[in-house]
Design a protein that fits this description.
Number of strands: 14
Number of domains: 2
Bound molecules: 5'-O-(N-(L-cysteinyl)-sulfamoyl)adenosine, zinc ion
CATH class of the largest domain: Alpha Beta
Largest sheet: 5 strands, parallel
Radius of gyration: 24 Å
Order of helices and strands: EEEHEHHEHEEHEEHEHEEEHHEHHHH
CATH architecture of the largest domain: 3-Layer(aba) Sandwich
Helix content: 40-55%
Low-confidence stretches: 279-286
CATH topology of the largest domain: Rossmann fold
Mean pLDDT: 94
Strand order of the largest sheet: 5-4-3-10-11
Distance between the termini: 31 Å
Shape: elongated
Strand content: 5-15%
Number of helices: 13
């Protein structure tokens, strides 16, 4: 499906450091990309309601990664799915007496607008589950050919016993360290059906759901029905990024079962026919199949609970913007929290972000208002004096973002510059200071996605 429009990204002098990310599977800080072409799969929305601050925070985090990669002179290939057919979408459409396709179309379009407003750079491929049905069927057929699928009535399940690497993202020995009992409890909360009779293992997941009356269904080699959730991402990610890619990203609610299962599906589907998965333990997730690094964002809560479409405690990007909030203040509010921490959205968070944005803009305006002239021949994209205040902002922001996307640290770097500028009397401002202010403006735009 169509992605969204790309905001301009100023090119900064020199190049940034190789960004490092915390890998959920190993607990280590590792280079996010292995080669010159950096590849990212970020799990996308289920479009049955508008983009809330939790979604926005998660996508803003991956946007920092994309921007840091571009600044480190990588070619970036970014893929995101849209779960445009799934239980919650169908349930919401039924509740509201709306066609599920129309609901998905409208909310996906609203999401595009929200991402544009927040200056989140678009993925090269935004892929809906429905348009990817042939890809998902082909991928599922590979799992079937390797003997990993079985039926419960007409529904098709993945036997996790087919993958001896199962658990390598979140199981025993990983930082999450979930045992089977914990996995079973979490699966029940997150769309799984551990108690369904007839399954070989409570943790086996649905790959193809047979048609139910009144539900959307498509013909396939598994009969008429629709795909399960985990196979959707496994199939789309490998189709567009290849068998191995750099980063899979999502909120921490996706660690298990979603990302564990997608990787498990892929290990099985990508085996040579007749093969078995490598012995366990341990099968390192860096074994060359699927994502090499797993990045997870913390949960944003509101009124004391995780912001969630199913709970309904939501603050929507589109509503705030329609009410006159500057999207850059929203983005500033998101970046004021480290992407891996859980945090709570409040009015005070937004007010603080607006004040910070105002202060940065005031600092820029203060320098511009001195009517200085940048000396002729000064190229705004030429390497700045690294020891100048603006040069220190550039290197400081680069260093903080390159270190596991430390946006709060980066904001503090810019705060110090703004404070120093605002404390300087107009007589103390210099032409070099004006060139520097423009470099800070471009740094904040290119690396943080905030336009002053
Ligand atoms: N379509 C699937 C992924 S394939 C899905 O989880 N959709 S979603 O609309 O529920 O969530 C989209 C993204 O936002 C996911 O990465 C999810 O982890 C993240 N997310 C959802 N709620 C929150 C929240 N309260 N805080 C932070 N991130 C959240
Ligand atoms: Zn996904």
């Amino acid at each position: 499906m169509e992605s969204w429009r790309r905001a301009d990204v100023p090119v900064l002098p020199g190049s940034g450091p190789e960004p490092r990310l915390y890998d959920t599977a190993t607990g280590e800080l590792v280079p996010a990309a292995a080669g010159r072409v950096a590849t990212l799969y970020a799990c996308g929305i289920t479009p049955y309601d508008a983009t809330h601050m939790g979604h926005a925070a998660t996508y803003a985090a991956w946007d920092l990664l994309v921007r840091a990669w571009l600044d480190a002179r990588h070619t970036v290939v970014y893929v995101q799915n849209v779960t445009d057919v799934d239980d919650p979408l169908i349930e919401r459409a039924d509740r509201d007496g709306e066609d599920w396709r129309e609901l998905a179309r409208r909310e996906t379009q609203r999401y595009r607008g929200d991402m544009e407003a927040l200056r989140v750079l678009p993925p090269a491929h935004l892929i809906g589950a429905v348009e990817a049905l042939p890809v998902i069927e082909r991928f599922s057929a590979r799992m079937a050919d390797r003997g990993a699928l079985y039926n419960v009535d007409e529904d098709v399940y993945f036997a996790r016993s087919a993958d001896q690497g199962f658990g390598s993202l979140s199981g025993p020995g990983t930082p999450s360290g979930y045992d089977v009992a914990e996995m079973t409890a979490i699966a029940a909360e997150r769309g799984g059906d551990p108690d369904r009779p007839g399954k070989k293992d409570p943790l086996d997941v649905l790959v193809w759901r047979a048609e139910r009356p009144g539900e959307p269904a498509w013909a396939s080699r598994f009969g008429r029905g629709r795909p399960g959730w985990h196979v959707e991402c496994a199939a789309i990610a490998t189709e567009y990024l290849g068998n191995a890619f750099d980063v899979q990203a999502g909120g921490s609610d996706l660690v298990f079962p979603h990302h564990e299962m997608s990787a498990s599906h892929a290990r099985v589907a990508l085996l040579p026919p007749g093969g078995t998965t490598p012995p366990s333990p341990p099968v390192a997730p860096t074994s060359g199949v699927f994502a090499q690094v797993y990045a997870h964002a913390g949960m944003v809560s509101y009124l004391g609970e995780k912001m969630s479409k199913s709970l309904g405690n939501l603050v929507f990007v589109s509503r705030l913007v329609a009410d006159g909030t500057d999207p850059m203040a929203i983005r500033m509010a998101l970046l004021a929290h480290h992407y891996r921490s859980d945090w709570e959205w409040t009015d005070a968070v937004l007010a603080g972000a607006q004040a910070r944005l105002d202060r940065w803009r005031a600092a820029l305006a203060h320098v511009e208002a001195a009517h200085l002239e940048v000396p002729p021949g000064t190229d705004p994209a030429s390497p700045a004096d690294p020891a100048s205040p603006a040069g220190l902002v550039l290197s400081g922001v680069r260093a903080r973002i390159g270190d596991d996307l430390d946006a709060p640290g980066a904001l503090a770097v810019v705060d110090r510059w703004a404070g120093a500028v605002l404390a300087t009397s107009p007589a103390g401002l210099t032409p070099a200071g004006l060139a520097g202010a423009r470099l800070v403006r471009d740094t904040v735009d290119a690396l943080l996605g905030i336009r002053l």
